[in-house]
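User: These chains co-purify. Model them together.
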Amino acid sequence: MADALIRSKKPATSARTPAGGAPTVPHSAAEAADPRIDVSAVTDLLLGTWAQTRRQARDMIKDPAFWEVDGQSVADHRERVLGQLRLLVEHGAAARAYPTEYGGQNDNGANIAGFEELVLADPSLQIKAGVQWGLFGAAIQQLGTKRHHDAWLKDAAELRLPGAFAMTETGHGSDVAAIGTTATYDADTEEFVIHTPFRGAWKDYLGNAALHGRAATVFAQLITGGVNYGVHCFLVPLRDEDGDFLAGIGGEDDGVKGGLNGIDNGRLHFDHVRIPRFNLLDRYGQVAADGTYSSDIPSPGRRFFTMLGALVQGRVSLDGASTTAAALALKIAVTYAGQRRQFDSGSGTPEVVLLDYGNHQRRLIPRIATAYAQAFAHDEFLRAFDGVFSGRTDTPSEREDLETLAAALKPLSTWNALDTIQECREACGGSGFLAENRLVGLHHDLDVYVTFEGDNNILLQLVGKRLLGDFSGQFKGASTGRLARYVAAQTAGKVFHGAGLRRLGQTVADFGSTARSVGLGLREEQQHQLLADRVQQMITDLAMRLRPASKLSPAAAAALFNENQAELIDAARAHGELLQWEAFSDALHTVGDDGTLRVLTWLRDLFGLSLIEKHLAWYLLHGRLSAQRAASVSRYVDRLCARLRPHAQDLVDAWGFEPEHVRAPIASGAESARQEEAIAYYAELRTSGAAPVPEKSLKKKR
Amino acid sequence: MADALIRSKKPATSARTPAGGAPTVPHSAAEAADPRIDVSAVTDLLLGTWAQTRRQARDMIKDPAFWEVDGQSVADHRERVLGQLRLLVEHGAAARAYPTEYGGQNDNGANIAGFEELVLADPSLQIKAGVQWGLFGAAIQQLGTKRHHDAWLKDAAELRLPGAFAMTETGHGSDVAAIGTTATYDADTEEFVIHTPFRGAWKDYLGNAALHGRAATVFAQLITGGVNYGVHCFLVPLRDEDGDFLAGIGGEDDGVKGGLNGIDNGRLHFDHVRIPRFNLLDRYGQVAADGTYSSDIPSPGRRFFTMLGALVQGRVSLDGASTTAAALALKIAVTYAGQRRQFDSGSGTPEVVLLDYGNHQRRLIPRIATAYAQAFAHDEFLRAFDGVFSGRTDTPSEREDLETLAAALKPLSTWNALDTIQECREACGGSGFLAENRLVGLHHDLDVYVTFEGDNNILLQLVGKRLLGDFSGQFKGASTGRLARYVAAQTAGKVFHGAGLRRLGQTVADFGSTARSVGLGLREEQQHQLLADRVQQMITDLAMRLRPASKLSPAAAAALFNENQAELIDAARAHGELLQWEAFSDALHTVGDDGTLRVLTWLRDLFGLSLIEKHLAWYLLHGRLSAQRAASVSRYVDRLCARLRPHAQDLVDAWGFEPEHVRAPIASGAESARQEEAIAYYAELRTSGAAPVPEKSLKKKR
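Assistant: Joint model of the two components:
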């Protein structure tokens, strides 16, 4: 296999400065070496609004006490992570979102930012902390009132009251409204009776439930006076001082999981467990002593979504932590790819560094661009979250937008983390499969991020429905004619845009020759137009296809919707990608340094063009790109990869991870030292004259 | 989130028989319910040529002694798997490929078939058995001669001599020719001196090296008389009876891995270790007592590839085992999706079964088609392997074809296994993340299949080079003009086929209206043409682009190749996909039963159309599909998914896995029982009159 790969030309570092002109058009890899990013300025940019808290958290987790230990038993790992939670309390890093009177800092944004960084130490620590303070404690804080805060919040904050968040049931995950657990009010004793009526209604997959939880915030159907008022949350004590279940409570350990084994996930069930009326977390719905129900939110549906929305922070933090984990994987794989050599051209020169191979660049460099886009999008998202939860911008419409943003971004970043970590693991070959190099562990732990806190497909479907709602809102009360004219205007000059309106033989609405399209046709404005138009067109097409639903029977309407479900999800994904691209572009506008701006502009272009390449068939089918311009997209991506190759190490270094965060031996410089030792050995052998003659040269002599 | 998903129409099972006509054109989901596959006949088809051995192996591993135990420590898991290897010996299931006089059955095909099934018990068992008998033992068998067989083969077969296969080094994985370990002949003592000259030349990632290996087949540069004759294989004793390293040998444990933790992978290094001349496995190259080297294969390159080729069986078995693992994951996820209900339409009817959702069908059903295609391709591959290794068809060109086939199929099936297992895991939500449901474990274990036994990207590159070689072989000695005419003829009538030959405004070479294209444009012959033409066009384009290389400097030629590396790999992938499609179609021609034929034809069509959909941008850019016909591809895939939905359970059942092979509680029927219990509970509650009134209905009354 020695001749299987041929040595690439290494970009010269003494390249001439490129002449002026469009900054997004790379002409050769050599030119790209000239501008450099200001690494520490880019670190500031990536750390974002809560950079200071992130730096504090990263400093704290340099202590090996916070690190995962490979190969620990499940039992030992669980104990270790519980101990780490106590360390967080000691460091004042536990519950920054809580009011100061309960041991917090009243700072929602900083709370999430600091929490996200824990993924670098051990994702089990991140998620167990999230269960304790972001779910169990946050339910008390967000769904309870001052009486409940006074009773439990400080104990939760300081881990004297470890708790489980008992929402999901074996039978119902994402469909929370349909859970089976009941909380029936007994006016005689002023108690709620918490009960599990069948096996499918067992609470399941709950962190802190198998071992450490002393109480749980239990979601159940609130029944009083013979009426079911829907899902509400109750604080239910679980275990006594010795860790034994209280009367009426039972449970099971979920056992070994695909990852996150530092968390004691388990099941819970309740056999007519009585709790005081007080224990209803009643911010959004109250039950009087006589059993009368009251709520400021009359619509049961809106009340339900308001309660769920109060817990959006889980999705916020997963978006950020996934992005950080993907960046860590890229730091490891890119560092290794810049040191590891493999295959030579047979001429006795050193073997080629992996990152100089065109295919390896294609595998890693676009993923750096995606991680950057996600980081910028996440910071905007976190600011939106902080605005609403601090009360500064707390309106129903801001809350709704925030939830849609969460539903759009969390799926993209969690899936991308798995994709990026896996590609990095494969790009590191056998060494990538060793636990010590961390990539496999990150994949195992983050696997479940794509289905918990809302299954990604279901979240995207919610986004799609919101987009459809916004679209039809524009035409509320308008005639069919007006909608038809809108659709026609949208597609004017486009050859094909969907099933109904094709006109064969018409020229594609596109501009310029191939040369111009490379130079001018795929710059910022055009990228934006292509990405934004795609979302609009997809939603328009879906709206048109779903229009007959209002005249169909419920079953037929459901079938029509079902036929279009996959495309609705695609449209939501396109919307999320657009948001990420816009966030990247907005971030560029804050960059002052010329070299940084040029390199990050290439990186943003690579992100945009990679998205367009991914959806190229759509652009061609819908007449949004001519075949010429479409064909240039992949070549442009290739050129951007080559141009960014000399900057790859800077770009991953700019995440600011220190050796205590990286910890992978293959990214430590050990590979480089091994390569140099081998090169020196062969050089010395040649000099000594003792080197064996290759058989090939022998045959030539004969 | 209750209204996020709307109930789909469930296909009626009492559908009318469709009228005759083209069998590949589904009109509605209801029609599809009528024909059924003959499940046990399809099982025979899937089990293939060595069905009997596969059934024997599956019967054997019903014994829980062969099963993986979740959460075992690495040390315990390693001991357990070693014990399982001893059980294989006891069952006569260890080394079917070896000659009968050494305890085998002289049956290469059955050996691989039986071995592949072990993946159902524990992939660690499969791979550790592969290390012992398929690598260590096979090196003795294939690279040694009768003297070596007499000395070691029976001990290897019966596990009295556990061994490591010491090829890979820390510094060199896929580039075996460049390994650093030396074996220098000392004529005075008639010994080879095995030596590790630097850290990068440590042997690494070797199963059996950390603990159990008593010897190793060590690959090293053979040096005699001051000449390096390239990589040869030597048997080197490693440990004494107590398990301690012999003098001059050192090593390290590779520690915890991302999976396969039942195998004791480790590192080895050698400090001037002397072994007798006898220990050179000298079938392809001999050293006389005086140090004279001889070989029947004069070309060092060909000799090297012949030796490597003798060990192709590893790739054969990974192709089969990956396919079986993907099928097992689908069996679990499809069974669950057919029982699990989630979200209702609010009308009190039972919730919708997951597999009735359009998006869920899109996620799972095309992957069933891929698993089938791979199974059929694998059986052909295994027959080719058996032909060569039995000696029946053992010619250099058959061997070369076999290696190319291995390099084309192993990457596709191993990557597909990871993709399918992951999609299945996500499709099962939180329960998919529990180790007991097996999906996460399968992903962890099979992860490394994509980079070991030849990194997938490097294997595909070899395939691409072979295709390029075959292409240019057609034009050997021909004028540039002839090649140009060939290329022009290839692209006649095509608007765009690459960078150089675009003609804007020309009509696309495609046939028929949308209606006809749905009916006639995507059937077997057209699928074949589209898939085959793509391979040919890609290779033609690459050949044209790489032609200038012969006139360039080595560095410039390497750079040109590097620019085209990613596309060469894409072309090789297209070639592998075509082979799989052809194997599926060939298998259809052996089906007699009408119902089976119709359903499997839909499944083959789904495989073909899914490939075309995946590469749709390419087809559009190269004028191979009109926009009209391209637009119909996705709709056709949707319709095939809907049509196959009623057959999904049959199709996964036809793999013939029994409960002892599946072992996942979510695929046991427990989910169905839970659903029924919940439905019965609510029904009884309604009947009793004690059911609480929903708040909504209360408001309506007011």
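Confidence is low (pLDDT under 50) at residues 1-27, 491-520 of chain A.
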